[in-house]
Write a structure and sequence with these properties.
alpha/beta, two-stranded antiparallel ribbon, five-stranded mixed beta sheet, 2 domains, Nucleotidyltransferase, domain 5, 44% helix, 11 helices, globular
């Protein structure tokens, strides 16, 4: 089944220096843009992360420091990537927890203002886990009857993710072929930031999702204890989380 979309949909997969969203960097990115008329455009390139690639990461994707030493940095490609993704909804595999949060961090470090709040996010892994609970390789075999021979290369994983989502739509009649439905279905929590430190409650109010103020409104805590905002801004939180907190803090000050 072809995917029913109104906006272009970009499937993304990242290979990285490690699995720390805050401190690790992109070394390879593949982006497959699906247009409403069914046309596709695929872009894949390697990135110089400017930091060493962990041996554990190289063991997974096979990319070494030497492989990327002459590639451009993310800052050098950020604007063109943001333009490619402009006006598009986004999809990936385990992307809501890893790829999109890390990509948001990279854009912020590169001083490129890509507004993720306007996007819909479809996490094919979440759909898969809710339906079958397996890995991407198993999903590809299960849904597409194919073997993913080049797993953990960004391009192979991106193309496989695209095929799996189409096959999921064919297999499960309860899945609506609609981006809004798929984005809602593939979201675990109503996160305000990618890391899930801030979530929306049943009334749409932004509340903390961790620590001593878990479940309490962010605005109320900042009003009562402004130092908590300063503590978070100076702490080891993702840049995107800090951006969300700053927006809430400034909104509070303007009241």
């Amino acid at each position: 089944m072809e995917i029913n979309i109104k906006n272009p949909l970009v499937f993304i997969d990242l290979e990285t220096t490690g699995i720390d969203v805050v401190n690790d960097r992109i070394i390879e990115i593949s982006a497959l843009k699906l247009m409403p008329n069914g046309d596709t455009e695929l872009k894949t390139r390697r990135i110089n992360p400017t930091i060493p690639i962990s041996p554990e990461a190289t063991a997974v994707h096979g990319i070494s420091d030497k492989d990327v030493e002459n590639e451009p940095t993310f800052k050098e490609v950020a604007k063109s990537l943001a333009k490619f993704m402009e006006g598009c909804d986004l999809a990936g595999f385990n992307s809501n927890r890893f790829d999109f949060p890390l990509l948001a961090e990279e854009f912020l470090r590169a001083d490129v203002d890509f507004d993720f709040r306007k996007r819909k996010f479809i996490d094919v892994q979440t759909i898969f886990h809710k339906m079958e609970k397996r890995t991407l390789e198993a999903a590809y075999k299960f849904y597409c009857s194919k073997t993913l021979t080049d797993a953990h290369s960004a391009e192979a994983d991106t193309l496989a993710t695209y095929e799996v989502l189409k096959a999921q739509l064919d297999r499960y009649p309860e899945l609506e072929n609609d981006i809004n439905f798929l984005a809602e279905f593939s979201t675990h929590n109503k996160n305000v930031d990618f890391a899930g430190r801030i979530v929306s409650d049943e009334n749409g109010v932004e509340v903390f999702n961790f620590g001593k103020y878990k479940g309490q409104p962010v605005e109320a805590i900042f009003e009562k204890e402004p130092s908590y905002y300063a503590w978070m801004m100076n702490g080891d939180f993702p840049l995107y989380t800090k951006k969300v907190l700053t927006n809430i803090y400034l909104r509070l000050k303007q009241k």
